[in-house]
């Protein structure tokens, strides 16, 4: 074994990163983050409240939307308080155990959100390609089973990661690239052989995010094929319009997700600032934008939201 592997850890903490070179204006930068946090929490909470209290919205599409809102709430609660601590109080230190715990929740919720987007794609596929069997296929019991299965998948595949990380020695500077903990970022700080962790992370990503995105793509191919066979242009546009919200959510989630994974693994010469900004987009924008997109595109949801705020 090399002498590096025998080196003792310099500290028992990681240092999180805000925006390098902008420390003097971190307090001002915290203002938009505070607004993003409040809007994310409020928007997703309102959607959950409306869907829960309105029996007419207890349909598959809105049940999946409520699952997405719960996941987005979890992501906001797991990330933004830490980010605000950095910008408001310069609280950059995080213990190894706390970092591994947050890493577990962030990655689990990301994989769960990917699964929910796949379920929503399946919902649109059935609604457009097989509308007569929509109610019989997507029963509440089947939705609950699928939801539980994908939540279990997200938790199970990330569960070993904190234990795999705890066995390493961290004797480098321990300065992470982001304001939160990510597996692909933490393993760079290890002084041990990280081959297994790196392969495990890549395989898990391909079997979750990669497979889900492929199945979503195939579902949209089949949806387009079915829609283009419709004789009426009005009916064709109406069918496509029901997919707009989901398509926006898919782009918001998978574009920065895939981009950040590629940068961490292959973008050694990429700009650190670009990597940091993409990291913020990766976790903060979907929980912020999803409630807005769905409330704008869904007439039923929009009307009930207006009633809530008018009252």
TrEMBL record:
- Ranges where the G-protein coupled receptors family 1 profile domain occurs: 43-294
Give the CDD domains listed for this entry.
7tmA_OR51-like (cd15222)
GO terms for biological process?
cellular response to lipid
Q: Which GO terms describe its cellular component?
A: plasma membrane
Where, per UniProt, does this protein localize?
A: Cell membrane; Membrane
Keyword annotations for this protein, in alphabetical order, are: Cell membrane, G-protein coupled receptor, Membrane, Olfaction, Receptor, Sensory transduction, Transducer, Transmembrane, Transmembrane helix
Signal peptide location in the record?
Answer: none
Molecular function (GO) terms for this protein are: G protein-coupled receptor activity; olfactory receptor activity
Pfam families to which the protein is assigned, alphabetical: 7tm_4
Topology relative to the lipid bilayer, per the entry, is: Multi-pass membrane protein
PROSITE patterns per UniProt: G_PROTEIN_RECEP_F1_1, G_PROTEIN_RECEP_F1_2
Give me the segments passing through the membrane. Answer: 25-51, 63-88, 100-122, 143-165, 199-224, 236-254, 274-296
**Record-linked PANTHER family:** OLFACTORY RECEPTOR 56B1-RELATED, OLFACTORY RECEPTOR FAMILY 51 SUBFAMILY AF MEMBER 1
Q: Which family does the record assign?
A: Belongs to the G-protein coupled receptor 1 family.
What is the name attached to this protein's record?
Olfactory receptor
Source species: Chelonia mydas
